[in-house]
Design a protein that fits this description.
This protein has about 375 residues and is an alpha/beta fold. It contains 14 helices and 7 strands. α3 runs parallel beside α4, α3 crosses α14 and α7 packs antiparallel against α8.
């Protein structure tokens, strides 16, 4: 749409408004709005007509309303129905499509390692309220909103310094076997190491035993070769910070900084930190072991996961030591979309949204949809006249 910019050396410009192909019905109303605004501005700047701001405001409001009406030409029901129908159809072909995507994935030349992470995230689920005995009161609610645990996973390629190069994201709704998402990640790792066998494998998670049981059983060394196990470095520091504050009070920051240097530089750091903590584990009055509080939690955490805390060795090999990628995925995949105010989900429809959203966040939407729509084509044979 052409406009003329007033003033000395006046030139004609173009206002370019990008409109998605799916919203072609909006083009006319957008052009009318832009033309009206440009005309009023040019007329006022040239001094031909004083601008009546009240009239201009009404005019812009009417034209903006026309744009909004065109934008909502598709009903809300259609916006809700189409993604779920797409998700249901996509899940029928998901395994083959994602296997083809991974097989065609180009591994960056600087990639040196693969990390696999798993973490839970709560999702608000819709559940029926059991009918009480007797006659229920009028207008009594029939459903309630209950939070259950979903699972998020990531498979990330890292360079020689442990920096993330590319991540594939996975999600699983509550009530579905979490081994499904672990098996999907294991298939990705298997395909990537088929292409580049020298990629080191690292399993990353927090201290939850459930996560480690799932990861270790889904990524056996007999199938995928050597693996490095690593508890998230920042979860360890969180436990140590609480213990240091209980011991040193205001001077705890210097103590935590010293422990952090030990963890980053020495393979026997856990042994030394336990030696610092154990004298404070006992009650100063009767000498009995205190089985609660931050000191007990830190000692228990270090004891249970000592074999997964070789951070100095991981840094020397250029492996990551933090599970920030999967924790960010819990927020972007689950938190941002599934936990909106008042939202509640059913298992099937929620899984449709999570699976499609994971494709978009993994930058695989176009590749997946092109392969998916190829499965929906139907051959049409011309009939003789």
């Amino acid at each position: 749409m052409q406009t003329k910019r007033p003033g000395r050396g006046a030139v004609e410009d173009l206002i370019v408004v990008a409109v998605p192909a799916a919203c072609k019905s909006m083009v006319g109303s957008i052009e009318a709005l832009c033309a009206a605004v440009a005309s009023r501005a040019a007329s006022g700047a040239a001094g031909r007509e004083a601008i009546d701001y009240a009239v201009s405001e009404v005019m812009v409001a009417e034209l903006t309303g026309a744009v909004e009406r065109d934008a909502h030409a598709v009903s809300r029901a259609s916006f809700e129905r189409v993604p779920h129908e797409l998700g249901a159809l996509y899940l029928r072909h998901q395994v083959n499509i994602e296997d083809a995507i991974v097989s065609s994935l180009e591994i960056p030349a600087e990639a040196r390692a693969i990390s696999v992470s798993l973490d839970p995230a709560s999702v608000p689920m819709e559940e029926p309220i059991p009918r009480p005995p007797g006659r229920p009161r009028r207008n009594a609610p029939k459903i309630t909103r209950v939070f259950h645990m979903a699972y998020c996973g990531t498979v990330t390629l890292h360079d020689g310094n442990g920096r993330a190069l590319y991540s594939m994201r996975f999600g699983q709704m509550p009530g579905i076997d979490p081994l499904d998402v672990c098996n999907a990640m294991a298939n990705v790792v298997y395909r990537l190491r088929e292409k580049q066998p020298e990629l080191r494998l690292q399993l990353l998670a927090d201290g939850a035993h459930e996560m480690w049981n799932l990861l270790e059983s889904s990524f056996p060394e007999s199938l995928l070769g050597p693996r490095h196990l690593m508890v998230d470095f920042w979860h360890v520091l969180e436990k140590l910070s609480a213990a240091a504050e209980a011991i040193q009070g205001a001077e705890s920051r210097a103590v935590v900084a010293g422990w952090r240097r030990l963890l980053e530089r020495r393979k026997d750091a856990v042994t030394q930190i336990l030696a610092d903590l154990e004298p404070h584990w006992c009650d100063p009055v009767d000498g009995s072991v205190v089985k609660h509080g931050p000191i007990h939690e830190a000692i228990t955490y270090l004891t249970n996961h000592a074999h997964r805390m070789n951070y100095a060795g991981a840094r020397a090999k250029g492996l990551p030591i933090g599970s920030g990628t999967v924790e960010a995925t819990c927020k972007s995949l689950i938190g941002v979309r599934m936990k909106r105010a008042g939202s509640r989900w059913k298992q099937d429809t929620g899984d449709h949204v999570i699976k499609l959203r994971a494709l978009a966040l993994s930058h695989q939407w176009d590749a997946a949809m092109s392969r998916f729509f190829a499965t929906q084509r139907t051959a049409v044979r011309a009939l003789a006249a």
